[in-house]
């Protein structure tokens, strides 16, 4: 089966750092995506990891451990506009449930 | 602008009716995905097409069907609509494969069944 878990909600303070975790159990693995989604809007791409390690892109970084089925998204210097849902998605070409499967998302609230 | 176009943006219809949602993928993208997102829920995969052929199927109801046309645009047909079908329906497109690239999402169609 396919299972992707993320915390439902998180709260953090403007200027702080927050880490959003994602664990996955899938029949195959060809990479992991993080997307940001503001309420009622389309998801937008943040990062892609296919090899173990950390990928850094400005204020956002994403980490992957394939052996542990684990990823996290790190957001630094939080801004109010970062309040959104963050979606973890696993790419699995052999998946019977489609190639790109999303977790339920983590709703992040950034407080002043 | 992701380059993926979905129409209409909003749709209000009555129970029992049938609607068609349309998606034009980014230029050159061969894969089209359809997702359903109910209020405060995650993205539920419905179906994927690649170059006109069905590639993968998720938890798509029998009342729903889709197709991808030779010009690569796709349509999602929802019939015998129920109140629970009210949701945001997203279409996403990607290139020949997703390696080193991402799926781009349209702005979605908000369907309200009354």
Largest beta sheet of chain B, briefly? 7 strands, mixed
Number of helices of chain B: 0
User: How large a portion of the residues of chain A is in β-strands, by DSSP E?
Assistant: over 45%
Q: What's the total count of β strands of chain A?
A: 11
Instruction: Tell me roughly what share of residues is in helical segments of chain B.
Output: under 10%
The mean pLDDT of chain B is: 91
How confident overall, as mean pLDDT of chain A? 92
> Which residues of chain B sit in consecutive blocks of at least 5 with pLDDT less than 50?
none
Rounded to an integer in angstroms, the radius of gyration calculated over CA atoms of chain B is 13 Å
Distance between the ends of chain A: 41 Å
Rg value of chain A: 14 Å
Question: What's the main sheet of chain A like?
Answer: 6 strands, mixed
Helix-strand makeup class of chain A: mainly beta
A few lines on this structure:
The complex is a heterodimer of chains A (112) and B (114). Chain A has 112 residues and is an all-beta fold.
Structure description:
The complex is a heterodimer of chains A (112) and B (114). Chain A is mainly beta. Chain A has strands spanning 3-5, 9-13, 18-25, 31-37, 44-49, 53-57, 60-65, 70-75, 84-91, 100-102, 106-111. In chain A, the strands form two sheets. In chain A, strands 2, 4, 5, 9, 10 and 11 form a six-stranded mixed β-sheet that branches. Chain A has a five-stranded antiparallel β-sheet with strand order 1-3-8-7-6, with no helix packed on it. The radius of gyration of chain A is 14 Å and the shape is globular. The N and C termini of chain A lie far apart (41 Å). Chain B has 114 residues and is mostly beta strands. In chain B, strands 2, 4, 5, 6, 9, 10 and 11 form a seven-stranded mixed β-sheet that branches. In chain B, strands 1-3-8-7 form a four-stranded antiparallel β-sheet, with no helix packed on it. In chain B, strand 7 and strand 8 form a beta hairpin. The interface between A and B is medium-sized, with 26 and 30 residues.
């Amino acid at each position: 089966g396919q299972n992707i878990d993320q915390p439902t909600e998180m709260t953090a303070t403007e200027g702080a750092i927050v880490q959003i975790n994602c664990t996955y159990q899938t029949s195959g693995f060809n990479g992991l995506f993080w997307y940001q989604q503001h309420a009622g809007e389309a998801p937008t791409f943040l990062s892609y990891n296919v090899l173990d390690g950390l990928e850094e892109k400005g204020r956002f970084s994403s980490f992957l451990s394939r052996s542990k089925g684990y990823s996290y998204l790190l957001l630094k210097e939080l801004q109010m506009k970062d309040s959104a849902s963050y979606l973890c998605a696993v790419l699995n070409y052999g998946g019977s449930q489609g190639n790109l499967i999303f977790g339920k998302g983590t709703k992040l609230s950034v407080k002043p | 602008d992701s380059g993926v176009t979905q129409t209409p943006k909003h749709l209000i219809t009555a129970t029992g009716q049938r609607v068609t949602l349309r998606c034009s993928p980014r230029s050159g993208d061969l894969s089209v995905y359809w997702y359903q997102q109910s209020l405060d829920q995650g993205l539920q995969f419905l179906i994927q097409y690649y170059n006109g052929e069905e590639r993968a199927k998720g938890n798509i109801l029998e009342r729903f069907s889709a197709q991808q046309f030779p010009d690569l645009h796709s349509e999602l047909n929802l019939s015998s609509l129920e109140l629970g079908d009210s949701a945001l329906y997203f279409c996403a497109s990607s290139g020949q494969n997703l390696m080193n690239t991402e799926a781009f999402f349209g702005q979605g169609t908000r369907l309200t069944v009354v």
